[in-house]
Amino acid sequence: MGNIVQVEYTIEVPHSTESEEKPPEEKKKLTKEEVKKENIFKDLNKAIDQINQNKDLEINNEKWNRDLLKSLANYSDCTPEVTKDIAREKKFLENIRNILTSHMKKETKEEDERVAKWCLAIYYNTSIMDSNIPRLRSLDIVPVFISFLDAQVEISRLTALSTLANIIDEKESTEVLQGKPDVIVILLQNLSLALDDPHHKHLDWSAQKCAR
C-alpha cells in the first residue's frame, strides 16, 4: 500500500482595500467650571454694555445685573486663575472702569453702592496676580481708585486702597497717601477686627487680605 502524502494548503484572505470607517471624533466636553465661566462672561458683558448706555446707572436696579456682577466678584475671589481671563477679555475692564467713574460723579443709591463694591472687588481680585498688573496699569485706573479713597462706604475705601497697593510702586504710594491717614487707620482697624473674629474676617475681608 502506497504512502499517503499530506499536503498543507495556506489560504490567504485578501485584505480589504476599502477604507475602514473611523468613529467620529468626540467633541471636547466642557467642565462645569468652564461652562460657568463662559456663561458668566457672555451674560455679564451684555449687562455691562447696557449699563454703559444708561447715563444714570438706573439699570443697575435690575436684579440680574447685580447678581451677575456679584457672581463674578465672588468667582474671581475663589478662583484667582479666572482673573487672567478677566484681564484678557476685550473691553471688559474698561466697562467696569466706566461704571466706577460714573459712580463717583453722582449721588448714589444703596443699590449703586453695591454695584460699585462688586466692581471694585473684581479689580482688586485681578490685581492680586502680578501678570495682570501691566494690563491694569494700561487702563489709567489709578486716578479712579484714588477718588474712591474718599468714598462714603468703608469697604469701598478699603478695596480701593488695597488695589492701589498692588499696582503702584513705593514712590507713587507715598504721593497717593499724603493727607489721607484715615485710610490707613481703616485698614489697621479692619485687620484688628478680622484677627479677633472666629473666621478671621471683617466686612468680608480676611486678615490675610488686610496684611497683604
TrEMBL record:
InterPro entries per the UniProt record, alphabetical: ARM-like (IPR011989), ARM-type_fold (IPR016024)
Top-level taxon of the source organism: Eukaryota
Compositional bias of kind Basic and acidic residues: 15-32
Location of the region described as Disordered in the Swiss-Prot/TrEMBL record: 9-32
Gene source species: Sinanodonta woodiana (Chinese pond mussel)
Taxonomy of the source species: Eukaryota, Metazoa, Spiralia, Lophotrochozoa, Mollusca
Name the UniProt record assigns to this protein: Uncharacterized protein
